[in-house]
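Intended use. Records like the one below are meant for learning the mapping from a protein sequence to its folded structure. Do not use them to infer anything beyond what is encoded.
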Amino acid sequence: MSFFICHFFICHLFICHFFICHLFIYHLFICHFFICHLFICYCFICHFLICHFFICYCLICHLFICHFFMSYFFNVIFLYVIFLYVIFLYVIFYMLLSYMSTFYMSFFYMSYLFNVNFFYVLF
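Structure written out for the chain above:
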């Protein structure tokens, strides 16, 4: 009787609690945090850096080449504003890169703590 009770208790704790809790933790950590945050960050990077950056460069090229000889004073002020905007985009980009590197380091550290291979868990 005690064998069955112990066996049931060990199996119940080990299988139900250990695997379900770890699957739940890994599911939340990998699916929600890793995939969603990575997707949001990459969409943010792609949208702001590619769309806005190229639009700004096209705008700079158009205004600088087409309107430079027409109104020098206006272009100097406008290019200065665009230059500040591009610097602002670079600051956002480096902040996101630092966030992503911190996130990757925390993910590797968590996989090290749980003694889980990163690529095995990911795939």
